[in-house]
Task: inverse folding
């Protein structure tokens, strides 16, 4: 078994075409492109949640899974599936400098084609020597003379003209080989993108995501005990991507009224609907009384996402209160839709009761080890 080291910077420099044409036959250079069909996915604009996205780009996932098979090709030289692929698609082409290995017995590392003493393969460092080499796919163990467990020079796997035509390169190569030892251990590969030197699809996806600049992006810290639909709704609220009257007007949609669906007095936008509206103010006041904190005041929806940090609650209650803020916005939006589209009757007391009911249902069933009763939940004294 071989383990492998893949410099992350190489993957970044590869475009969609080159990285999607990689197959498990020992090359990154358009290997067997006529026989292998890869469905290319256009790079999307849906980054991971940690950088303000909705969960991750499909392109990153596809590339990460593709790299997984490349990794397995390197680390499973005796597996049946690799032998079948090599029998069908074997090629004399070589990998570009993706892996970097820790040399052992030299039987699994190709002398010219693998980057084992530098970040580049020796075929690129010493092109004249490589051009005159007879066996361009020889391993380290086969291609070098071992003397007293040291690399001592070039063997007969190279043409005799090599010394005459590449004395300078030969001197540099021998100097580079000085001090390198063979051992009885197998050659090892490790993944430098992981502190444990182990490959994982998650590490590749995180790295692919890290090369993009998300410094100016709104990043939502999700609440773990509320459903994804509620978290995604709050993410859209923070980006002003819900269908308020002002948002629809920006999209040139004809709407009956531009006014708030709850108070019907001011233009409806996310800041007014969730922070400034009279109905929303009543709901936030009732929420603060229920949670036994000071009255809440927000100037914009951005303030909603940091409320739990400044209400004076302990660590556990802060996590609960953060989820309650999300649920309150969720219930305000549902009440707005009910009044606007169903002509329903909406009151602050009704909305806060919905907040308590949904909060109890989700917290009790989505929090590990929670057995809270409805009475204790309504008192907010159970933590």
Result:
């Amino acid at each position: 078994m071989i383990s492998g080291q893949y410099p992350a910077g190489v993957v970044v420099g590869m475009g969609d075409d080159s990285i999607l044409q990689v197959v498990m036959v020992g090359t990154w250079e358009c290997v067997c492109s006529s026989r292998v069909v890869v469905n290319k996915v256009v790079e999307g604009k849906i980054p991971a949640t940690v950088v303000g996205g909705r969960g991750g780009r499909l392109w990153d996932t596809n590339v990460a899974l593709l790299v997984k098979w490349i990794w397995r090709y390197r680390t499973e030289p005796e597996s049946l599936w690799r032998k079948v692929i090599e029998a069908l698609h074997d090629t004399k082409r070589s990998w570009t400098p993706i892996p970097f290995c820790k040399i052992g017995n030299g039987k699994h590392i190709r002398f010219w084609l693998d980057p084992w003493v530098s970040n580049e393969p020796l075929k690129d460092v010493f092109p004249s020597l490589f051009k005159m080499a007879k066996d361009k796919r020889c391993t380290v163990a086969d291609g070098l003379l071992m003397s007293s467990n040291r690399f001592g020079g070039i063997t007969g796997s190279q043409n005799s003209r090599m010394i005459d035509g590449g004395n300078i390169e030969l001197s540099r190569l021998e100097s580079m080989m000085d001090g390198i030892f063979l051992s009885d251990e197998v050659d090892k590969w490790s993944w430098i993108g992981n502190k444990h030197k182990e490959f994982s699809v998650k590490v590749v996806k995180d790295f692919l995501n890290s090369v993009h600049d998300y410094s100016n992006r709104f990043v939502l810290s999700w609440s773990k005990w509320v459903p994804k639909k509620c978290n995604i709704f709050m993410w859209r609220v923070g980006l002003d991507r819900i269908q308020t009257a002002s948002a629809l007007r920006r999209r040139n949609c004809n709407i009956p009224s531009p006014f708030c669906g709850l108070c019907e007095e001011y233009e409806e936008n996310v800041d007014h609907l969730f922070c400034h509206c009279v109905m929303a103010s009543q709901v936030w006041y009732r929420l603060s009384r229920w949670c036994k904190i000071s009255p809440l005041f927000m100037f914009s929806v951005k303030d909603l996402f940091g409320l739990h940090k400044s209400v004076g609650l302990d660590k556990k209650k802060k996590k609960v209160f953060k989820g309650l803020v999300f649920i309150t916005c969720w219930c305000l939006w549902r009440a707005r839709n009910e009044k606007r589209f169903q002509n329903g009757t909406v009151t602050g007391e009704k909305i806060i009761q919905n907040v308590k009911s949904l909060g109890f249902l989700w917290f009790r069933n989505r929090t590990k080890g929670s057995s809270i009763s409805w009475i204790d939940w309504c008192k907010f004294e159970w933590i």
In short: The CA atoms of residues 48 and 79 lie 34 Å apart.
